[in-house]
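Dear colleagues,

As part of the handover before I leave the project, I'm documenting each prediction I ran so the next person doesn't have to rerun anything. This entry is a single chain, and its sequence is reproduced below.
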Amino acid sequence: SAVRVSAGDFLRPASLRLEFGRTDPDVFYDEWLDLPALRREVLERGDGKVLPRLWDAAADRAYREPYVDLPPDGVVLVDGTLLLGRGLPFEVSVHLWLSAGALARRTPEGERWRLPAYARYERDGTRADVVVKADRAEHLAVIEP
């Protein structure tokens, strides 16, 4: 059995995320994710319980959801952007890699301000166990990390 957790449900409150504006790529890279909460509530609890969602970014308030029991043979799948290289204790990590051109083409106009953060993420190295080249969804390829 698996529990899926999206990093997008572990963002910091808007007052912290958007303190320097809505389109600052460095703040997006460094400050949007609530990494301590993701560690504490999902990855390092050690009691078989997982909080699937913490923060509703659209409403800018906590979800107030109950913890989910993870069976002894269960796994937690965490998806999201800019997660690797941050000291999160993942047992296995997979990076879906896009070339700069493919990323620019697939990024909606209103989110293109994020592209410098993604470029910085690539420069800093992703440290994934498995890297999948995903420029073309119909032709995925595992590449050496």
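Strands lie at 2-6, 49-50, 55-56, 61-62, 68-69, 75-79, 94-97, 130-133, 141-143. The first strand starts at residue 2 and ends at 6.

All the best with the project,
I.
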